[in-house]
């Protein structure tokens, strides 16, 4: 069941995914890759990232059932991941380190972990505990369109916003993520407590 379209849910899911994927904050990394001669294919990167995220959105639920983990429990765990990501953005610290062996730029680090990393995977399933799948998928599609545009126009966007502008945007969405992680945690923790009490 995809559910019915709800603009408020769509907008909330879009903002959360926009903040987690953080393609604007990744512009300096993308420019650095280009300066090192590591070409970035916008179509390939966007397509692969979208396929990975959409696939995990649908298959991830089945994987959770396989390990006997419900969505509310996963959402609580996801809230912690989002909380740590928000700290990265607000405090300028590196918590999630990319130590993978693959050196091809379009796939690593662009697709994974920048676009389709653990944070995005966790966030998608965490959102599923709150919103109808239709609104989340639409929000993901619009985010991927935005990602494609940014990848195509990276140089122009950096000139337009400047390093200061990118820095301010990153801080702002860090605070948004912090608030979202708190809401996800409290809402789903309450659900888990109610389930536990019902089992007594």
TrEMBL record:
The chain crosses the membrane at residues 12-30, 42-59, 71-93, 105-125, 131-151, 172-193. It is a multi-pass membrane protein. Coiled coil: none annotated. Its main location: membrane. Keywords: Cell membrane, Membrane, Transmembrane, Transmembrane helix. InterPro entries: Multi_antbiot-R_MarC. It is found in: Cell membrane. It comes from the Bacteria. GO terms for cellular component: plasma membrane. It holds the Pfam family MarC. Belongs to the UPF0056 (MarC) family. PANTHER family: UPF0056 MEMBRANE PROTEIN YHCE (PTHR33508). This is UPF0056 membrane protein. It comes from Phocaeicola coprophilus.
């Amino acid at each position: 069941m995809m559910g019915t379209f709800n603009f408020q849910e769509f907008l909330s899911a879009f903002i959360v995914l926009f903040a987690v994927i953080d393609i604007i904050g990744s512009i300096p990394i993308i420019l650095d890759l280009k300066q090192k001669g590591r070409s970035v294919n916008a179509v390939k990167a966007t397509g692969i990232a979208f396929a990975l995220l959409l696939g995990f959105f649908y298959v991830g639920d089945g994987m959770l059932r396989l390990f006997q983990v419900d969505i509310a429990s996963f959402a609580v765990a996801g809230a912690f991941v989002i909380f740590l990501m928000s700290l990265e953005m607000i405090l300028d610290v590196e918590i999630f380190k990319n130590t993978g062996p693959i050196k091809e730029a379009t796939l690593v680090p662009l697709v994974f972990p920048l676009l389709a990393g653990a944070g995005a995977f966790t966030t998608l399933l965490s959102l599923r505990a709150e919103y109808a799948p239709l609104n989340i998928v639409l929000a993901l599609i619009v985010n991927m369109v935005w990602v494609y545009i940014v990848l195509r126009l990276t140089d122009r966007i950096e000139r337009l916003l400047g390093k200061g502008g990118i820095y301010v945007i990153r801080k702002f969405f860090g605070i948004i993520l912090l608030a979202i992680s708190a809401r996800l945690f409290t809402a789903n923790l309450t659900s888990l407590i109610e389930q536990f009490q019902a089992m007594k």
